[in-house]
Amino acid sequence: MTASVTQTAHQVSTQALTWLYTHRERGALPTDTTADLGDPDSVYKPLGETALAASLVLRESAAGSAELAMARELLSFSWSQFGDGDMLYERLLRFSLLTDPLEAYAPFARCGLRHEALDRLLAHTTSLRSVRAAELMPNRRLAVANAARVIGLDPRGGSYDWPALTRATWLGGTPEPWLIDWMTGYCVTHTVFHLTDWGGAPAGLPDDLAAYVGTWLPVWIDIWAEIEQWDLMTELMIVGCCLREPYCEPADWERLARVQHADGLVPRDGGPVADDPDRRFADHQHTAVVAAVAGSLAVSRTLGGTAGPR
What are the start-end ranges of the E strands in 166-236? Predict the structure, then answer.
């Protein structure tokens, strides 16, 4: 069973990573982009997500040499698109209450790509009461705390009240699991991602929440697979890799492998996939990102790898 998951997860992840690498120029920032970013979700956010996937492939080091080289090049490409950190610095300098420069910087910092001025500015802004009081969704507060942890702004782990942040989330209340909806499903996945630093620290998920997730995760995966919401299903599969006892089912991986296209594209849902190359990339980049992450973590976990507790 483990061998089956390892093989299929490696196949899915490699093909998704290759697709992201092959089409990376389609995700480049427009030449007139400034730190103001009229629409941050259009290209800037997806670039950061691609960098995140690359950083996790590199962290796990469970891929082959060719895949690791592609991950390094994707990370370098995204960093250069952000002006080697200059854009993140300018954005934070102009809009101090925004959290996205901190979060976008974390994958690069994880892999040793640093920006000295941004490091200094982040050390200042993250200490401000006004910044800490900015109103965010509860799982977004965990994202900020984890990014600060990754970057090294919280070396002793005492700058953020992790238990309070955790219990403020939907998952933190261990609610009736049958009332979960599409958006709440994404919130659940990201609560787990940030508490465990994307599976690098499984002990970050409290015991009662780990038990709750372990009970209901198979049900949730089946629900979103049944309605062909492949993006959310794959994020839930990442959650399975973040548990201390990983949940990696062969049937889930075989199902994901069946919907992946020959070129590596992973559709976000059961709807038609456009023929236009730019539209295909824009519509399905995120699902390729989560497939690359899910596959890398599944390979690592099934081979016994984990970054260990924090």
Answer: none
Q: Give the orientation angle of helix 65-81 with respect to helix 44-60, to 10 degrees.
A: 150
Q: Which amino acid is at 251?
A: A
User: What is the C-alpha to C-alpha distance for residues 242 and 211, in angstroms, rounded to an integer?
Assistant: 13
Cα(51)–Cα(29) distance, rounded to whole angstroms?
Answer: 14
> For residue 44, what is the DSSP state?
H
Using the Cα atoms of residue 57, residue 232, residue 267 and residue 279 in order, give the sign of their dihedral.
negative
Name the nearest CA neighbour of 268 among 250, 278, 283.
283
Own/partner pairs, 180-184, CB within 8 angstroms, 24+ separation: 180/220, 182/229, 182/232
Report how far residue 202's alpha carbon sits from residue 213's, in angstroms, rounded to the nearest whole number.
Answer: 13
Name which of 55, 45, 41, 82 is nearest 197 in CA terms.
55
- As a whole number of angstroms, the distance between CA 67 and CA 199 comes to 20
Sign of the CA dihedral running 104, 73, 60, 239:
positive
- pLDDT tens digits, one per residue of 108-127: 999 999 999 999 999 999 99
Contacts by residues 158-165 (CB-CB < 8 Å, ≥ 24 positions apart): 159/126, 162/195, 162/204, 163/206, 165/138, 165/141
Q: Is 80 helix (H, G, I), strand (E, B) or coil?
A: helix
Task: Evaluate whether 26 touches 271 at the Cβ level (below 8 Å).
Answer: no
State how far the alpha carbon of 93 is from the alpha carbons of 120, 122, 132, 271, in Å: 11, 9, 16, 41
174-189 confidence digits (pLDDT tens) = 999 999 999 999 999 9
Place of tokens 């090049």: 73
CA 232 – CA 181 distance, rounded (Å): 11
